[in-house]
Amino acid sequence: MTDTHETSLTEQEDINTQKTDNFSQEIMNLPRAGFWMRFWAYIIDGLIVGSISRLFIKPIFRLLDIPIDSSGIFSPFTVIDSIVFFGYFFIMTLLFAKTLGKMVMGVHVISLTRDKLDWKTLLFREWIGRYISAFFLLGYIVVAFNPRKQGFHDMFSDTAVLLDKER
C-alpha cells in the first residue's frame, strides 16, 4: 500500500510540475510592458495620488489646524500621504490588477507563480518592493535593461507587467 501511495504522490507531483512549467512557459511568451509604458503609467498615477492629496488631505489638515509642513518622515501629513499613496497602488492592483495609469496605458500586473494576484504578494510588491526600488532608483530603471522587463519590485515579488490583450 505504501508503494501505491508513494507512486500516486510522485505522479501528482509530476502533474503539478508539468502544470507549473506550462504556466511559466505561457507567461514567458506574453508581451511585456517596457520601461516607457510603465513610466507614463506611473506619472499618471502620481498625478492622481497627488491630486487626492491636494484636494482632500491638505484641506482636512488645514481645517483641523494640523501643520502640513512639519519636517520629518513621521509627521502626520507625511504618514497620511504615504498611506494614501501605497493604499492606492495596493487596492487598485488587488481589485483590478492595474491602477488607473496602467488602465490608460493598457498594461496590467500578473503573478508569475499563481493564477491570480493575492494580497500578500501585492503587499510585498507595492510596499516593500516599491520602497526598495525607489530608494535605489535603479530598481525602476532596470526595467529598461532587463530582458524580462521587470523592476526590482517585480523580481522580489514574482510579478510582471504585461500588455493588455485588447491592444
Describe this structure in words.
- With 167 residues, the chain is mostly helical.
- The chain folds into two domains: 1-30; 33-163, no CATH class.
- The protein is built from seven helices and two strands.
- It has helices at 2-28, 35-63, 76-96, 100-105, 119-136, 138-145, 152-157, and strands at residues 107-111, 159-163.
- Strands 1-2 form a two-stranded antiparallel ribbon.
- Helix 2 crosses helix 3 and helix 3 packs across helix 5 (119-136).
- The longest helix is centred in the first third of the chain and has 29 residues, at 35-63.
- It is elongated.
- It starts with a helix and ends with a strand.
- Mean pLDDT is 83; it is low at 15-20.
